[in-house]
Design a protein that fits this description.
Distance between the termini: 51 Å
Number of strands: 10
Number of domains: 1
Order of helices and strands: EHHEEHEEEEEEE
Number of helices: 3
Radius of gyration: 18 Å
Strand content: 35-45%
Length: about 200
């Protein structure tokens, strides 16, 4: 008699990639100009800030009228991932709260390993990402697998190639970092956190 094997996938951690709508992608260059103007006008913070090294940051983007379509695009992407029935209960609806900020990384800048604590969902919308300006690295969230290499990909960093007009969503607890910007140009993205509360 042949034996049977039943396999369960445990502790699956989702990551979603959502392409922005074409109409929004057409506005990316205008956002680059706006962001550069805000920096030139002295808004935001220069230098090392939280996980960021060698860059510029502007907080509370979601509260600024000039960035309303950015926030709308993130929320549109959120509605897509909430439809993922492998993760979310389709019979529930959610209230949400969002915060977002601009990350502009100069040549030689990077983001150190960090997580976003108790936020339900975190992510990034890429505005400008020249070649070699730094990939997003997601760390395996299971500490013990770094010592036990039994499983494929155990302890590996998952590499996300940035692409202008791409939004990446992931659970806020995931540790992540961004590689060194080896480009001669700035990398610009909108990072965000979203808190979800079932109604």
């Amino acid at each position: 008699m042949e034996s049977s094997v039943e396999v369960s996938e445990l502790f699956i951690t989702p990551l979603w990639r959502v392409n922005c709508r074409d109409e929004f992608k057409k506005s990316l260059s205008s956002y680059v100009q706006l962001i550069n103007k805000l920096r030139k006008d002295g808004e935001g913070d220069e230098g090392d800030n939280r996980s960021s090294r060698n860059g510029w940051r502007l907080d509370d983007v979601n509260l600024k009228d000039d960035f309303k379509s950015v926030t709308d695009e993130i929320i549109y992407g959120l509605s897509s991932i909430l439809a993922d029935e492998k993760v979310f209960n389709s019979s529930k609806t959610y209230d949400y709260r969002i915060e977002s900020w601009i990350n502009l990384t100069n040549k030689g800048g990077f983001n150190a390993v960090h997580n976003h604590g108790l936020w339900s969902i975190s992510g990034v919308l890429y505005i400008k990402c020249p070649k070699d300006s730094g990939r997003l690295l997601i760390r395996d969230p299971r500490p013990a697998v770094y010592y036990h290499k039994l499983l494929q990909q155990a302890g590996e960093e998952i590499v996300i190639e940035p692409k202008e007009g791409l939004i990446v969503f992931f659970p806020g607890f995931l540790e992540h970092s961004v590689e060194l910007n080896k480009s001669r140009q700035d990398r610009i993205s909108i990072a965000f956190n979203i808190s979800l509360t079932p109604k």
